[in-house]
Specification:
3-stranded antiparallel beta sheet, alpha+beta, 14 strands
Length: 362
Amino acid sequence: NNFDRLRYDYYRDNTVVLEAFKADAFDFRTENSARSWATGYESFSARDKGYVKLEALPDEARGGMQAYVVNLRRDKFKDQRVRRALNLAYDFEGANKATYYNLYFRNKSYFDGTELAATGLPEGLELDLLKEVKAKFPGGFVESVFTEPYTNPTGGSDTAVRANLREATKLFKEAGYEVRDGKLVDAKTGEPFTIEFLYYQADADRQVQFFRNNLEKIGVTFNIRVVDTSAYIERLRDFDYDMIIGVWGQSLSPGNEQREYWGSGSVDKVGSRNYAGIAEPAIDALIDKIIFAKERLQLVAAVKALDRVLLSKDFMVPQISYPFTRIAYWTRFGHPEPLPKYAVGFPNVWWFDEAKAALIVK
């Protein structure tokens, strides 16, 4: 708390905010856009002179999930084979190269980037918890929870993508769909399998192009619906969508909020963050294990068990993960070395450095 005054400026346009930063209209920003990070800060006068610095700092304080989320409240997404087929159609590696400048990693956990993420096979206390909950709610488990770690399909090449799409087509067929005249339809009713992707920014097509193109190759009708922010929030609150991009940040000490994210009690609760519509007694039981854990070892084991069960059900299509915080700032500040392990620390532990500021000549 070394600053006498803090001023926060708000911009309505991402292009304008970047140009304002370059012009020294403000001092510090976190950058969430891979495209801007890769190309937006290329050679400009202040950076060439060393007045602006860019850093990607490890983010060990939080993890989470970012994914394409389908709405389980709609019958067409209730079959897990359909949901897994959608994952097979997402070519993350291709999207990462073409859209995200190879900056991202594939999200493989609901607590990605933290010690709480499930890895390998369950053992010890985690295994005991899974067995206990399975005995109470056997229908809520996929046997792979005990026998194999969760993995996402791998794309990135024509050969891999074709193999994934063949497997997706097979799963759709097992779920009761077939291709007629190039369209995937319900084999009994003839109703086309359609997905409306709901978004609130003009770059919606860029966000989903690799996903949409592959889905259309196997006959899925994929429509993009862009609405203004107010309408988007209203539809989100009412769960009025087929598919959205959902983001859940996680702390290192999960608790009651897990009920809001995945608990049965939040499925019909207007405005809840259970966007997928998950309602399973086994998951509710594991959430309770997290909330009422009496020590750290119990908490970690319960979170890993929950993570493993959520992944095994293919509730959503994991998208991207990035274990760093990207910051850009004008070099008129000082900060302690090292910075706090679990935070960038700006502005809390940074300070204005008059000597550094004097070196910036416009």
